[in-house]
Design brief:
By secondary structure, the protein is an alpha+beta fold. Helices cover 19% and strands 44% of the residues. It has a 6-stranded mixed beta sheet with strand order 1-2-3-4-6-5.
Amino acid sequence: MGFALRVGGTELIGGVLALTYCWQCLYVDALWVSEEHRGRGYGAALLSRVESEARKMGCSLSHLDTFDFQAKDFYLAHGYEVFGTLDDCPPGHQRFFLKKRLVRVLDNA
């Protein structure tokens, strides 16, 4: 699944690509917001949207990876926790593996 964020319906300023797979898991493959549009809540909105859709499909866990020079603190601020690290990937840096429990919203209808 994927969602794009556009200005004026044309200019792409962000997006998220993710997939769900058996065992009710969401894998966030990529989340991006253009540098000039960062800090405005767009990344949080994209992450929330993809997590919400995953919950609707019955997912109870989300996971992803990021690097020390990318968005680890962003994901930590949105409820993710580090469950593994890979040193020197790339050399001199760390790759972080993060997870988050997705609380399912029960339908009372």
